[in-house]
Amino acid sequence: MNDQPQAAKRTRLARNSLYGVLSWVLPAAPSLIVTPVIVRRLGVADYGLYATILGVTGYFFTTIIGKIAAKYVAEYRASADNAKASELLSATLIVAIIPTVFSLVVLYLVAPWIVGEVLQIEPSMQATAVRGLWLAGVIILLTAITQVWQSALQGLQRFDTYLWVSNASSLALSVGLIIVALAGGDVVSLLEWAAVAAFLTLTFSILAVQ
Question: Rounded to two decimals, what is the model's pTM?
């Protein structure tokens, strides 16, 4: 009698593990197509600027606070305490947003200094670099909020939905970047689309949790 529940648990664990791996691997796959296109259209110098902006902001101004939602949502879900789960989600959002906003205010203020003194970008590209850093900051804020909702999806063990949202978002970002690049878009245009894609990902993640 106990074999069937145990078998069901093992099957669910294997399936969820597969979803977890795919949600990490599949979104990275489109970059293999996107990157060469962007390099050819932007040129080495502008692509270097684009990659530098994403690298600097991604390394120094992101947090992983939102991931704690997965643990506690799962715990409160197991005890059927939906009120506590909702409170935890709200608290996690606040804790994730406040340090991110503080970091981005600092980024906004020091962006010209980072561009000119730290990265030593040539003067003709500095204005673009500063705007790019500001746009990347918007992307980071949207991503930090999205992380909370996607972690909640994982806590609810809706790994299949998380997989679909992750891959749909990655595909939308990649297709948009290719279109913008082929249309002659510059570094700022690419980052603008990335911000739009980040907003769409946030929207779909929120709807998926409901």
Answer: 0.78
